[in-house]
Amino acid sequence: MLAKHSRLFESGAEPIKREILESYLVQTKKHNSNEDSQLREQIEKLTNEVATIKKSVSTKQNDKAIQCVDRNYELMNSLLKQKDKSIEQYERQILSFKNMILQIDHQKKKLLNKLEGQDPMKNSQATLLSQQNQILFDKQMICKSQQTEIEFGINFSQNCVNSSVITQKSNSQSVQTDSKFYNEINMLTQDEVRKEIEQYKVILKEYDLENRKMKKQIKQLQNSKSQIDQDTQTGLIQLDKAVQLEDDLKRELEQTIKEHQQCIDVLNSTKKQFNQQTMELTILKNQYDSLLSDYYFIQSENKSNEKIINQLNEEIEQLKLGIQTKEFSISSADTLTSPNDSLRSYKKMGSNLKLNIVNPTYFNPQSIDELILAQQENQILVLKISELKYQLLELQRNQKNLLEEMNQRDDLMNSQQQELQKYRNDCKEFERRMENVKKLEAKLMEKENWYVVEISGLQQDMTALKQEYAGLKIINQTLHKQLEKYQNRGLLQHSK
Question: DSSP assignment of 364-430, as one string?
Answer without folding.
Answer: -HHHHHHHHHHHHHHHHHHHHHHHHHHHHHHHHHHHHHHHHHHHHHHHHHHHHHHHHHHHHHHHHHH
